[in-house]
Amino acid sequence: MKPPTRKRVVRFNDLRVVALPWLAVAGLFAEPSPAVAQSAATGSPSGAPTNSPAWLKTTEPRQLTWGAFEFHPRLREGLIYDDNILYSTKNQQSDLINQLAPGIQIVGGDRSSLRSYVSSYEDLNQSLDLTRLTPSWLVLRPSESWPDKFMLLDYSPRWQMFTHHSANDSLDQFLTFNSVWPMSKLVVGIRQDYRYEKTTIVQAYTRSEVEQIHSEADAGYRLNDKFSVDSAFERQELSYPGSTNLMGYVEWKGTVSLNRQMIETFNVSLVLAGGQDDVGSGLNQTFEQVGGRVRYDYSRLFSIDGSVGIEDRQFDTGRGDTLSPVFTLGATYKPWERAYLRTGIARQQSASLYDGYYNSSIGGYLTLHKDFTDRFSLQTDLGYYQTDSTPIQNVPNTSKPSDYYSVQLKGNLKLLKYLDAQAFYVFRGSGISQNNNVLQDNQCSVQLSLHY
Predict the structure, then answer these.
(1) Closest C-alpha to 305, from 334, 342, 338, 272
(2) Quick one: 396 exposed, middle or buried, by C-beta within 10 A (0-12, 13-18, 19+)?
(3) Mean pLDDT of all residues in 375-400
(4) Cα separation, 168 vs 93, whole angstroms
(5) CB within 8 A of 183, min separation 6: which ones?
């Protein structure tokens, strides 16, 4: 899923290709499930790892191993045409962007146990993303089904080279570390993410360097067959190292959940959370949240994960406290073999991109995926969200809400055993609620991905 003059950044920091990535981490308490309906590898722009469907794995892949570690190198090369690289209303610039992204994923631990655990989900045509596997997800399942302890390190640099506007060239960095240690009833885990990239900031209508550091320590304990408890402590820092006029924050957050298993596939939880947004002297904010969460899996066809609650937010500026609803809801439906539909909606609050405000954001997404053959798949992604900025001082609010939307079409073709080709088209824009400030951007991309 962060130097002395560093500025900080709002959460919406990876909106170059998809307008709603924040929904993966938005909401009251819910972390994204590591098990999702299976899709073909799509070569994500970040160079992040993806799992291929079970029906694509016709033979057992070769392994690069050393002791308890297994190595999976990869290489992605892509060309992107963007008709508005700065996402601006005036003096729009188009360019052809070349991206080169090598990468490696290292997995350590009892690989046989881990491979069996992953295969149990592939048998259901689901993928298990080990970079997102957490104790709070495992603790809801019987301890006898847990894998042995493991660690995973994934790293990918990415060179971006602009044909005509070389001032935007960048060397980006993406790093993920995840370690989970299951015991008899207790599961503990540590996760660290680092992202540094030069990308479009749609709220600021510009292109800027963005740095994000996310640290998390988790623990879960099964009290008995029906009850479990889990906790998480997170620190998230987001910043614009090269910006002089954009603000952000460092967020500290703790969460505790008491879970009750009603039936094998249905869990309800009482969740308490609280934390602080460090924005700057006299501008900090604290918050407390209370709510409930429901998780339900119906066979292989349908699953739902939702939470709803109330957030009380306080401000160092002396502004009165605010009491607001926060929620997240996600669902996956698999109507037939090799196809799924995924949707979600969330509302969250955060410190603002600009000094003197905080944001309330609500939005949703819809994904349609279809594997037509063992080698070819298509996917459509739709997204929309709206952000209201409210002053943290006791002054009238004269700001207008801002909205953002995106449509993405992408196809994946498996050329060889270790070689995939992808094609993307993205249309995105903003200003539906402000008819005098409508922005639009089109992107087309072709990529080749070599993975081992």
Answers:
(1) 342
(2) exposed
(3) 81
(4) 12
(5) none
Which stretch of 100-109, 252-261, 327-336, 397-406 has the lowest confidence by average pLDDT? 397-406
The pair of structure tokens assigned to 448 is 């080749």
| 3-state DSSP assignment of residue 47 | coil
pTM beyond cutoff 0.70: yes
Q: Is the pLDDT of residue 106 over 90?
A: yes
The count of residues in the chain is 452
Give the model confidence (pLDDT) of 37-46 as tens digits: 443 333 333 3
CA end-to-end span of the chain: 24
CA angle 172, 177, 181 (to 5 degrees): 175
Q: What percent of the chain has pLDDT over 70?
A: 80
Contact status, residue 339 vs residue 371, Cβ threshold 8 Å: yes
Residues 382, 435: Cα–Cα separation, whole Å: 21
Kindly list the structural domains of the chain, giving each domain's residue range(s) and its CATH number in brackets, ordered by start: 7-451 (2.40.160)
Place of tokens 């993806």: 50
Residues 379, 367 contacting (CB under 8 angstroms): yes
Do the Cβ atoms of 231 and 256 come closer than 8 Å?
yes
